[in-house]
């Protein structure tokens, strides 16, 4: 195992109060005991841990991702000092350090954009689409929507950068095509759709996602968006990451996948403002203190942290699947779904994703749609074939039955 990126919680507070936020509004209150900002001592210690790790594993590229809370609440001086120290300590001939940031966009100014250019920081903006969709959940501490302030920041950002990437949280209550066209009108070039970080003990009914009676509301929302995206002939249409990633995985593109989809190993750790080393922060949605593991940049190496049970579970989350997922022919594409969405207090993470049927329906639909565009000779050559959800479920049932019989057969022999 090796870590290739660190998410740095440089600020543990936020100027927004998004109602779906796993950091502040899903029951984990550990942020209240964290320093508000990352100190120089933590920065020095974590950079030495990075140096130690990249040299041990001979990593050619390493990502440092500024996050929060809201990272733009930290002063500009912090970033200048941090990056100057990092580039001085770590030999650029050996390891290419790449700096990234995820911001809610509200505080973006001309001065910040000049700093991003100066320090070569790649920036993503969190935005949920139309004014109505965005302001439904992304509110400030007085309950006011933040859409107009984010658009203002995004427009400033566009004056400096050609590529504008946004992360948006899935919103069943709004029209997906209107959201897509809104992003397009703002010049967004790439956007990622995140499903709410819900699980079996905290299902997504709060957000209007009703899975009762076999319903697949997430797939039913995403499929019309996929069709609209496919039909969009504009040369500068936005990339929609979930669709592109699924297609790449279906057709076996090497290196495809991420922490949500695919069969690869995860490789990201979190550094809190006090220097604690933790697993992916979305697992805070599983309960108060859930991600705490008594690891710190002051006393532990990155390799030591990787060997703690919860971090190992996260790193291998696409391989450590429940029986139903192992029996599913689609598991190399969906990867069992995002780890947090598999959690229950009763079974831990030994469950399918709470969005399992949605992912199944979406994958089958996209694969069939793409295969119908292919010549018959290609299908014969690759052995790929059209599937239905019913056929996938039948394969799962057959594989589960076969695997449950295996120990009996071995005993009989």
Describe it:
With 413 residues, the protein is α/β, with parallel strands linked by helices. It has 2 domains: 5-315, TIM Barrel; 323-405, no CATH class. The chain has 15 helices and 9 strands. It has helices at residues 40-57, 76-89, 110-119, 131-137, 147-158, 176-185, 217-231, 241-250, 302-306, 309-315, 323-326, 331-334, 356-371, 376-382, 389-412, and strands at residues 5-9, 61-67, 96-103, 121-126, 165-169, 190-194, 239-240, 268-271, 277-278. It has a 9-stranded mixed beta sheet. The longest helix has 24 residues, at 389-412. It is globular.
- The H-level CATH homologous superfamily of the largest domain, spelled out, is Aldolase class I
Number of E-state strands: 9
Largest sheet: 9 strands, mixed
Distance between the termini: 38 Å
Strand content: 5-15%
The number of helical elements comes to: 15
List unreliable stretches of 5+ residues. Answer: 405-413
Give the overall shape. Answer: globular
Whole-angstrom Rg: 22 Å
Helix content, binned percent: 25-40%
Task: Write a brief structural summary.
With 413 residues, this protein is an alpha/beta fold. The protein has helices at residues 40-57, 76-89, 110-119, 131-137, 147-158, 176-185, 217-231, 241-250, 302-306, 309-315, 323-326, 331-334, 356-371, 376-382, 389-412, and strands at 5-9, 61-67, 96-103, 121-126, 165-169, 190-194, 239-240, 268-271, 277-278. Helix 3 (110-119) links the parallel strand 3 (96-103) and strand 4 (121-126).
């Amino acid at each position: 195992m090796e870590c290739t990126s660190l998410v740095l919680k440089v600020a543990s507070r936020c100027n927004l109060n998004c109602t779906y936020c796993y950091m502040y509004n899903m029951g984990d209150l550990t942020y209240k005991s964290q320093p508000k900002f990352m100190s120089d001592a933590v920065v020095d210690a974590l950079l030495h841990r990075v140096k130690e790790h990249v040299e041990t594993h001979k990593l050619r590229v390493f990502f440092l991702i500024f996050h929060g809370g809201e990272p733009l609440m930290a002063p500009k001086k912090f970033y200048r000092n941090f990056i100057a120290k990092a580039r001085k300590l770590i030999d650029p001939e050996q390891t290419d350090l790449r700096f990234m940031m995820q911001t809610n966009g509200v505080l973006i100014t001309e001065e910040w954009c000049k700093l991003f250019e100066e320090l070569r920081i790649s920036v993503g903006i969190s935005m949920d689409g139309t004014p109505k969709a965005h302001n439904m959940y992304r509110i400030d501490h007085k309950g006011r929507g933040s859409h107009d302030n984010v658009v203002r920041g995004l427009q400033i950002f566009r004056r400096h950068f050609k590529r504008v990437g946004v992360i948006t949280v899935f919103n069943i209550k709004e029209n997906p095509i209107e959201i897509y066209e809104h992003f397009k009108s703002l010049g967004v070039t790439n956007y990622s759709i995140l499903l709410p970080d819900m699980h079996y003990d905290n299902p997504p009914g709060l957000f209007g996602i009703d899975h009762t009676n076999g319903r697949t509301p997430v797939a039913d929302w995403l499929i019309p968006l996929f069709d609209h995206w496919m039909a969009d002939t504009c040369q500068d249409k936005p990339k929609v990451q979930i669709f592109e990633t699924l297609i790449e995985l279906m057709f076996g593109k090497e290196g495809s996948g991420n922490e949500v989809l695919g069969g690869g190993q995860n490789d990201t750790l979190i550094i809190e403002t006090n220097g604690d080393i933790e697993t992916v922060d979305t697992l805070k949605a599983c309960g108060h203190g859930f991600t705490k593991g008594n690891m710190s940049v002051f006393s532990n190496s990155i390799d030591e942290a990787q060997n703690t049970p919860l971090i190992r579970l996260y790193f291998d989350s696409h391989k450590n699947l429940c029986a139903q997922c192992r029996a599913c022919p689609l598991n190399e594409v969906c990867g069992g779904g995002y780890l947090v969405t598999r959690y229950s207090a009763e079974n831990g993470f030994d469950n399918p994703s709470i969005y399992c049927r949605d992912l199944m329906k979406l994958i089958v639909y996209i694969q069939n749609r793409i295969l119908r565009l292919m010549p018959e000779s290609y299908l014969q050559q690759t052995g790929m074939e059209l599937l239905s959800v019913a056929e996938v479920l039948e394969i799962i049932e057959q594989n589960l039955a076969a695997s449950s019989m295996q120990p009996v057969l071995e005993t009989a022999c």
